[in-house]
Design a protein that fits this description.
By secondary structure, the protein is α+β, with helices and mostly antiparallel strands. It has a single domain, classed as Roll (Nuclear Transport Factor 2, Chain: A), CATH 3.10.450.50. It has four helices and five strands, in the order H-H-E-H-E-E-E-E-H. Strand 2 and strand 3 form a beta hairpin.
Amino acid sequence: MSDEARGLLDRYIAEVWDEANPEAVERFASESYRRHTSPGAEPLDRNEQVARLKGFRAAFPDITIEVEDVVADGDLLAFRSTMRGTHRGEFLGIAPTGRQVAVGLVDMVRIEDGQFVEQWGGPDMLDLVRQIGAKFEA
């Protein structure tokens, strides 16, 4: 599945991110798709994932994803990438700052019948909000 999985990932990055088309997730994710963003949170369904990606695109309209490493094993695909963009819209209640960000992502995707059915991981959100100016106190 390695070559097929890599091809699916490349098409996903091209259509969803490079072409700025979050709705394209519907072509890559099954109807039963679940996006796990945190062990303590309910997984997102496909429509909620589309809305999440639209939020990223609205906040970072020039967002890009550069895939750096890919590993495939059976029905699982893991990839490490870097997300870059400029904070031009509100994000998590933080007003636009114009700051450029570069954030690491690690994702694992389970694939069935050529579609994503489950996905875990994502961007380092703490680093992302820190880069756009959020302050944290211990």
